[in-house]
Amino acid sequence: MERFDFDTPVNRKGTLSYKWDSQARNLGESDVLPMWVADMDFRCPQPMLDALQERIEHGVLGYTKRGDRYYEIMQNWLSRRFDWTVDTQWLCYCPPGVIPAVTILLDILTKPGDPVLMHMPNYDALYGAVKEMGRSLIRCPLLEDEDGFRIDFDLFEKLLREYKIKVMLFCSPHNPSGRVWTGEELEQTGALCARYGVTVISDEVHCDLVYKPHIHTPFGKIKSMEQNSVTLMSPNKTFNVGGLMTASVIIPDPALMARYRKVLGTWAMNLDTTFGTIAVETLYRDPDCEAWLDAVVEYLRKNAEYATEWINTRIPGVRTRCPEGTYLLWLDFADTGLQGPELYEFLIRKAHLDLSEGSEFDPEDRTHMRMNLACPRATLREALGRLEAAVNSRTAK
Fold it and tell me: Model pTM?
């Protein structure tokens, strides 16, 4: 018998779930299967649930701060999982999550109108933060070939030089494609950014969800960029606690850290949520939580392989590549002739599937969709069957 059960469905309807209870997205259709928002349909690790229950039974949920134990726990996690030695002074947090931390850092490091570079496609909340903060988004499109996405280093350097870039937002592992950047790619990126004086803000929320033999290397571990980078991590994706909204911020530069902490104080964000604090400490410390993580990564890897083979062998006109990390699948519908809003509506009305549109990750993209694979195998099988039937019925006409 398996120690952890990821096959038994958990009914999330009617729980104020952003993914399952956003019926307005369904265009009036019923029985739409949501596979868009990046959270898992699995129960969280039991030790964390027990720790939260213990605090509820205590009965007092007053103001909470992260104590010294948090720093030791994070240091141990980063050392054990990524072979990364991090000084206590480098560690801070952002109770609302990674994107608010990105916004704070953009406000500190840039002013309205300044250029901020991003590889595209990319996580919509990241480039959305650039635009909402009134900064100028400089797109550096990724190259795509039979092996997947890769960085166009010639264009990258050209843009750094031409626009005098001082800040880059980086996504590692890459959302939406699931690429896990190699050490060589990160070293080359770091060398260019160091040469042109660029500070890198690296969103690494999927860092714990990487499939062997691929290895995640934190960007802050790149020596050439140690003092000129910020690494953002969170238990959000790792342990399916997006609703707790808490993140860790790793800033080796003491001057930048001081400015960051000052903003937290100004906005009264220097205290943490009670449940967030308890969750972080339990998830990163309890060995059963780490065992749960190892088991869920293996389950997700099998889901990714299962879905990739199904799509590439049974659904003509749709193509994909098996992700190296994350639980996200990037689907190319170009050969179906469907694109943009027509593609989204087709999937809702004919396949009864709600996926994330490619335009969310690059405004110029009209032919891709992102599928969330973090669900029981039976749910994934149902989704793939719906997709196959809908696409094949269209091409058979």
Answer: 0.96
